[in-house]
Amino acid sequence: VAGFAIYGVALVATFGFSAGYHLIGRPKLKKVFRRLDHVAIFLMIAATYTPFVLIKMDNAWGLGLLAVVWAIAAIGIAIKLFLPRFVDGLSRALYLVQGWAVLVAWEPLQSALPATALRLLMVGGVLYTVGVVFHLWNQLPYQNAIWHGFVLSAASCHFTAVIGLVPI
């Protein structure tokens, strides 16, 4: 239950802060929501690992992986809170490293998770990663909408994988 709760709270926070950031017009409040939006991304990535590890990989590999992704989240959050614009490139790199840290434990993960969950997690990861190209392509018309289309598609894959863990 804890893994699902952590994931659910992070999912709502991520989309809530992102919506706030993109909808709010007042500059000072928008700046606050931008920070919260970026902080929530680190939380979301770590929280996506959490139910899988707690339910399917409750061993040294899984718990070590979980410790690493939450440590990266803590570092990323500190950077976003205290140096929010200074290191945008570093933050993006940390997002990708945090998301793809799963590859370090790929073999144990394959043994622990159903094939459908693995495919959904990988497709989601690829969608997020490809989406970054559009996120950075500022001159492309509708670049932000395209980026968020990738985000919604990837998050849907991950959500479906998490829901697949719920015993029926």
Question: Keywords for this structure?
Answer:
168 residues, mainly alpha, 82% helix
Element layout with pairings:
Elements: H1 2-23, H2 27-56, H3 60-82, H4 88-100, H5 106-112, H6 115-136, H7 143-163
Helix pairs in contact: 1-2, 2-3, 3-4, 6-7
Helix content: over 70%
Strands, count? 0
Which blocks of ≥5 consecutive residues have pLDDT under 50?
none
Radius of gyration: 16 Å
Span between termini: 14 Å
Helix and strand element order: HHHHHHH
> What is the structural class?
mainly alpha
Q: Provide the residue-averaged pLDDT.
A: 93
Which geometry do the CA atoms define? globular
Strand content: under 5%
Helix segment tally = 7
Number of domains: 1
> Tell me about the biggest sheet?
none
Can you walk through the features of this model?
- The chain is mostly helical and 168 residues long.
- It has one domain (2-163).
- 82% of the residues lie in helices and 0% in strands.
- The chain contains 7 helices and no strands.
- It has helices at 2-23, 27-56, 60-82, 88-100, 106-112, 115-136, 143-163.
- Helix 3 (60-82) runs antiparallel to helix 4.
- It is globular.
In short:
With 168 residues, the chain is mostly helical. The protein is built from seven helices and no strands.
